[in-house]
Design a protein that fits this description.
Mean pLDDT of chain B: 95
CATH topology of the largest domain in chain B: Rossmann fold
Helix content of chain A: 25-40%
Number of strands of chain B: 9
Number of strands of chain A: 33
Shape of chain B: globular
Distance between the termini of chain A: 47 Å
Mean pLDDT of chain A: 94
Strand order of the largest sheet of chain B: 6-5-9-7-8
CATH architecture of the largest domain in chain B: 3-Layer(aba) Sandwich
Strand order of the largest sheet of chain A: 15-14-25-24-23-16-17
Shape of chain A: globular
CATH class of the largest domain in chain B: Alpha Beta
Oligomer: heterodimer
Strand content of chain A: 15-25%
CATH superfamily of the largest domain in chain B: NADH-ubiquinone oxidoreductase 51kDa subunit
Chain lengths: 830, 445
């Protein structure tokens, strides 16, 4: 399946003058030079059977299944032996005969197929791959009906774990090396390799290092037999019983196309879909395996309203819940009500965000809305308003692949945007792209990109970006791309510096948020100074334009409060109500303060999928649908709308759009409600307001400030979230969590020495708020910086330390001696 | 015409006292070829080797000088990368036993050849990849290299010529496939030895993705004499397209097994005369011209010239000139099984036909050896063989097919007998032993 939007890209066929003309099965065809014969044959509709061949992996020619006859190599002479069409490139005048027209090729292929089945267990009736198996299918299409092999098959112990998630059945393996090549070439995690030889050759692991890859699930999908299976799906379903629905991954801002396979209302597995413009055929393990969060026991099954008598949340009907919310919100939004604030998180679709944006302005009469459930700044809001909102498709994956130079700032692609990581790695490997990173140290992902780290302590990003313009080594120019992550918001002046750098060098600038809904929220105007499609609150004509479109007399003209300010106002008793959708206080800049604010605010409405810290404190809880139970659009970091349809139906939860419409319609002072009820209606209305050619916000102009100077014993903290961490959207998948990277504190070798600890020993990060203890790991990090994951292995850095990136902490050895069973990997300790 | 058919050149000093030392080698005129080469332009050295008509002695017979000429010598692209010479000393083919005696008895012949060859292709590092099992050879070669360094034949600025060369003796780890040149390169780089995809060819992207010449020990060891005595001297020997002399290794049921150095084109009949004939009281049944991977021949082929063209015309290959002699006590089914077992054991596993075909063939051949074959087995073996030969990634499977096909071609009856009678009854195995008591001989057919 391919979800492609026209995307404004030219539909005209590119003219090429480097075509090679050859003849395959008597059909003349012209293809670009360097094309492999197996690919050229596909273009005339001939499928040559194959196992090791994969269009995105380097050719290997190992399985020999794709043999063809070459009566003329293009030089008038025949090639004496059948050739593997997966390694043979086309030549002008070449004549190729496949199994379709050559008895020699056909016999060669049948011979190989028979050999492949010699040591294959033929256990299709109990194999997960049965029914969708290239070996099974091609044995039927290009093999003998009956085997002549009567003797003893090779046997192995079944199955072995090559990671917590991936299981290997060596008997089924046809040794095509797709998995090992994927791991080595695409993911850059060569932890599996072929070992032993002859018929005993097998996929092996390095005993001292498990197959810890964020992309390991792709090996299962490209395995042409049932040799690789996932612990979560093994023996759970038959492919022909599954219903497949194309969808989009909801875990990051990459917009990866996926296929959701479900059976009787239950998602059984997710696969990568094939979208050459976005994720090609690869997805991260999080996109693949993290879907069980939507069916945990703490799903909210009914609308809940807090009983004034008992103080408990009581199940109620939708109309009653809508009425309760409408009444309280009407009061809070009215005169002397104190006003309402709307906090939307990163999980929302663009339709949902648009509904919240309109709900805030039209129903609540406020600009108090902010999607940023993380550290944020006014500079960032200004940057988003001026350069992201309503800008449509900008830098694309294809641009990334072509770029000569890519500079990353405030972004660790492997952890925060895995699809971008894979595309960059491809560009580095195939096109010699150079990657530079404004970062504190070379993370594993950066190492796999052969990235040059421009060592920068958190807080120093603005200065580092400013200096880049004069860096002859980086030599950023119009052939380069500057990718900035949302973490830059923590450094004053960093977005300003990034814009200046892009302007000076001609490099293109792309903003990469972490969550799937973030870009859509910007486009929908979920910011206190921003309206949909890049209109600004401060622009009267923009307000008038939108008011006309919405059929209301006027829109609120006072800029709203941002997340911090709303929570601050709520904590100070200055806000009448809060509407919170998909925000986890643990992610907020000040979790303790946020919890206090949620407790303090007179009326709290929570739109949530599962019970949370917000629902605990809410007065009305409205169960909303997870992505799999609704349709919607995620806008990926490129600005590409990724529309997806509802996979599962019959659930008890409603889309946020419908919930907001219900509340609006219960408000007696509104004649028209929200103006739409369904996702499709919201999408259509958004399309109508999408056009805006009026003024945009001004670019931010914030001076850089010097970062904190650590005193004796102090370190600047650096932190970000790992791809597989304690996030709630990974709940219920223990096998996936088993492949998480160990949580460590990364320190320089000199620091470790000074602390008197070795790698693996426990160290403690401490602030006045509290402390966190984790094993130490050496990194090429400045001596003054300490890195720790924000949300892994039970650590809640922000809650425990009250600190984030750029703040000061102290580091000390915890108890001196190395703790037994520490997560460190010390050599020599078998 | 040939009065004394033997031409000891490579083996000239093998019977000398402490033949392996630098002193012995130098006293016999060693390193004069190097002296001469260093006065020549590298391209002229290549030209001399081309003119000599020397062809690769590792089996395929590719012209050595031409191979050297493929190395790009320009200053851009691949030519700008370092060049490497790699000597394939991973001699592992069943029956083949020429390089190991050569390195044992006269390692300096090889070392001198390495220096001249490296000079010609403009390599400043050369590797000798020695089969790991032959530790004694490894030690002798290492000592020879050390002696060459001490004598100034190796290292920086060799004899003031401005040319510098380092030679590294590398031990393999016991895989027949590493005799395949690209698998050897992978192994040398520290990877598993499995053949590489071509193109790119080693001449452009070989060791460390740099231009690389890979030559057999005997080919390189032949170079010093060519330089010293001239290409005409070399090309005067041998036949029209197979010039020079070479080592023929006789083994098996022969009175005096060993190395016989003679011009190309000599016949097995002549060599057997020199070797005292087939084991006394027995007659020739079949033989391999160049190791187990070359199709077997029979007593019909005693007068086939042992050069590249002659053997090819007889339907086999000259290969490594490892002449394994089998007399009439030998079971062809058993011999074929042993060979195929070897190929099964040594198949690297990369490609399907070799990996699975050899696994299957062994099982069918075991059945035939035990007299339990089925009526379909011969056709099955031939069909399997056809599905392997020319369909695999490298030539290893071609060798498997060759020995099976030729065995059935010449001795089909024995395979037919395998459907009813165990091979050990038809050919009591003790009778094939070299020192079999005379009374077991009569039991043979």
């Amino acid at each position: 399946m391919t979800v492609t939007s026209a995307g404004g890209a030219g539909t005209e066929v590119e003219k090429r003058d480097d075509l090679v003309t050859l003849t395959i099965d008597d059909v003349e065809i012209s293809v670009p030079k360097e094309t492999l014969v197996i690919r050229a044959a596909e273009l005339i509709g001939v499928q040559i059977p194959r196992f090791c061949d994969h269009p995105l992996l380097d050719p290997v020619g190992a399985c020999r299944q794709c043999l063809v006859e070459v009566p003329d190599a293009g030089n008038g002479r025949p090639m004496p032996k059948p050739q593997a069409s997966c390694t043979l490139t086309v030549a002008p005048g070449m004549v190729v005969r496949t199994q379709a027209s050559s008895p020699v090729a056909d016999k060669a292929q049948q011979g190989i197929m028979e050999f492949l089945l010699v040591n294959h267990p033929l256990d299709c009736p109990v194999c997960d791959k049965g029914g969708e198996c290239p070996l099974q299918n091609q044995a039927m299409s290009n093999g003998r009906g009956e085997s002549r092999f009567l003797e003893t098959k090779r046997t192995f112990a079944k199955p072995i774990n090559i990671s917590a998630q991936v299981l290997l059945d060596r008997e089924r393996c046809v040794l095509c090396a797709r998995c090992t090549r994927f791991s080595d070439q695409i993911a850059g995690d060569p932890f599996i390799a072929m070992i032993d030889r002859g018929a005993l050759q097998q996929v092996g692991v390095y005993e001292h290092q498990p197959f810890e890859s964020y992309f390991s699930g792709n090996t299962i999908q490209i395995c042409p037999v049932g040799a690789l299976t996932s612990a979560g799906y093994r023996f759970r379903a038959r492919p022909f019983d599954l219903v497949s629905t194309p969808s989009v991954a909801e875990h990051d801002a990459c917009g990866a196309a996926i296929r959701v396979d479900h059976r009787r209302g239950r998602v059984m597995r997710r696969l990568s879909a094939d979208d050459p413009e976005v994720n090609e055929e690869w997805i991260s393990d999080k996109d693949r395996f993290a879907f069980t969060y939507a069916r945990q026991d703490d799903r909210i099954t009914h609308p809940l309203v807090r009983d004034p008598g008992t103080g408990e949340l009581q199940p109620t009907s939708w109309p009653a819940a809508f009425a309760a919310a409408a009444t309280a919100l009407t009061r809070a939004a009215g005169q002397d009500g104190g006003g309402v604030g709307v906090l939307t998180g990163g999980r929302l679709t663009r339709e949902d965000s648009y509904a919240y944006s309109k709900f805030a302005r039209v129903v609540l009469g406020t600009n108090n809305i902010d999607f940023r459930a993380r550290r944020h700044s006014a500079e960032e809001a200004q940057f988003l308003a001026s350069h992201v909102a309503g800008s449509g498709l900008g830098v694309t994956y294809a641009d990334l692949e072509r770029a000569r130079t890519v500079v990353l700032a405030g972004l660790d692609p492997e952890e925060e945007a895995a699809t971008i990581f894979l595309r960059l790695r491809k560009a580095v490997r195939k096109n010699g792209q150079r990657v530079f990173a404004v970062a504190s140290h070379t993370s594993r992902g950066l190492a796999k990109l052969s990235a040059t780290v421009l060592p920068t302590a958190p807080g120093g990003e603005a200065a580092a970006l400013s200096a880049l313009g004069d860096d002859g080594e980086v030599a950023l120019d119009s052939g380069g791309i500057l990718m900035v992550g949302e973490r830059l918001a923590t450094t004053p002046g960093a977005y300003t510096a990034a814009l200046a750098l892009a302007a000076r060098t001609g490099a293109r600038l792309a903003w990469v948020p972490r969550r799937a809904g973030d870009r859509g929220a910007v486009d929908a105007g979920c910011l206190p100074g921003l309206l949909p499609a890049g209109r600004t609150v401060s622009d009267a004509s923009a307000r008038a334009d939108l008011a006309a479109a919405w059929g209301v007399p006027a829109l609120p003209s006072t800029p709203g409060l941002d997340t911090d300010a709303m929570l601050g106002a709520a904590a100070a008793g200055q806000l009448g109500a809060l509407v919170v959708a998909g925000v986890d206080p643990v992610d907020l800049p000040d979790p303790a303060g946020a919890r206090a604010a949620l407790a303090k605010v007179p009326f709290l409405v929570s739109m949530e999928i599962r019970a949370s810290e917000v629902t605990e404190r809410a007065d009305v809880v409205l169960p909303v649908a997870p992505a799999v139970e609704k349709s919607g659009t995620f806008v990926d970091w490129e600005g590409r709308p990724r529309v997806f349809e509802q996979v599962l139906s019959g659930g008890h939860a409603l889309p946020d759009v419908r919930v907001l419409a219900g509340i609006a319609e219960a408000m007696t002072h509104l004649s028209r409600g929200l103006g739409f009820r369904t996702v499709e209606q919201a999408r259509a209305e958004f399309a109508e307001v999408w056009f805006w050619d009026g003024a945009r916000a001004h670019a931010p102009a914030v001076d850089a400030v010097e970062g904190p100077i650590p005193g004796t014993g102090e370190f600047v903290l650096d932190t970000w979230k790992l791809l597989i961490d304690d996030g709630r959207m990974l709940d219920g998948e223990p096998y996936l969590l088993g492949t998480a990277r160990p949580a460590t504190v990364r320190l320089s070798a000199a620091t470790l020495h000074r602390l008197g600890v070795v790698e693996g020993d426990q160290v403690t990060l401490r602030t006045q708020v509290g402390s966190v203890t984790l094993p130490a790991e050496t990194a090429d990090i400045p001596d003054s910086v300490a890195w720790a994951p924000e949300h892994s292995a039970g650590v809640r850095l922000r809650s425990s330390l009250g600190a984030g990136a750029g703040d000061l902490v102290t580091v000390s050895a915890a108890g001196g001696a190395s703790a037994p069973g520490s997560a460190g990997r010390q050599g020599g300790q078998a | 015409m040939i009065v004394d058919p033997l031409t000891p050149v490579l083996s000239e000093t093998w019977d000398a006292e402490r033949s392996w030392t630098l002193e012995t080698y130098t006293d016999a005129g060693g390193y004069r070829g190097l002296e001469k080469a260093l006065t020549m332009a590298p391209d002229d050295v290549i030209a001399a080797v081309k003119d000599s008509g020397l062809r690769g002695r590792g089996g395929a017979g590719f012209p050595t000088g031409m191979k050297w000429g493929f190395i790009p010598q320009d200053d851009e692209g691949a030519g700008a990368k370092p060049h490497y010479l790699v000597v394939n000393a991973d001699e592992s083919e069943p029956g083949t036993c020429k390089d190991i005696p050569l390195m044992m008895a006269a390692p300096h012949t090889l070392v001198e050849g390495v220096i001249i060859s490296s000079y010609a292709i403009r390599a400043s590092t050369a590797f000798i990849y020695v089969r790991g099992e032959v530790l004694h050879v490894l030690r002798r070669l290492q000592r020879a290299v050390q002696e060459a360094y001490l004598a100034g034949h190796l290292g920086a600025d060799i004899h003031g010529s401005g040319y510098s060369l380092d030679v590294i003796v590398h031990a393999g780890a016991g895989a027949y496939i590493c005799g395949e040149e690209t698998a050897l390169l992978d192994s040398l780089e520290g990877r598993r030895g499995q053949p590489r995809l071509r193109p790119p060819f080693p001449a452009v992207a070989g060791l460390y993705a740099s231009p690389t010449v890979i030559n057999n020990v005997e080919s390189i060891a032949s170079v010093p004499m060519i330089l010293e005595r001239g290409p005409d001297w070399f090309s005067a020997m041998g036949t029209e397209k197979s010039k020079g002399f070479t080592l023929y290794s006789l083994s098996g049921h022969v009175e005096r097994p060993g190395q016989y150095e003679a011009p190309l084109g000599i016949t097995l009949r002549q060599l057997l005369d020199l070797a005292g004939g087939v084991r006394a009281g027995h007659r020739l049944k079949f033989w391999t011209p160049g190791g187990s991977s070359t199709p077997i021949l029979t007593d019909e082929h005693l007068d086939v010239p042992l050069d590249y063209e002659g053997i090819s015309a007889a339907g086999s290959m000259l290969g490594t000139k490892a002449l394994q002699i089998f007399d009439e006590t030998t079971s062809v089914v058993r011999t074929t099984l042993r060979w195929v077992e070897f190929y099964k054991h040594e198949s690297c596993g990369k490609c399907t036909p070799c990996r699975e075909g050899s696994w299957w063939m062994v099982q069918v051949l075991r059945r035939l050896e035990a007299g339990q074959g089925t009526a379909e087995d011969i056709d099955l073996l031939l069909d399997m063989s056809a599905n392997m030969a020319g369909r695999s990634f490298c030539a290893l499977a071609d060798g498997t097919s060759a020995c099976v096909d030729s065995a059935i071609e010449y001795f089909r009856d024995e395979f037919v007998a395998g459907m009813t009678t165990p091979a050990w009854e038809l050919f009591p195995y003790a009778a094939s032993a070299l020192h079999a008591p005379a009374d077991t001989v009569g039991a043979s057919r």
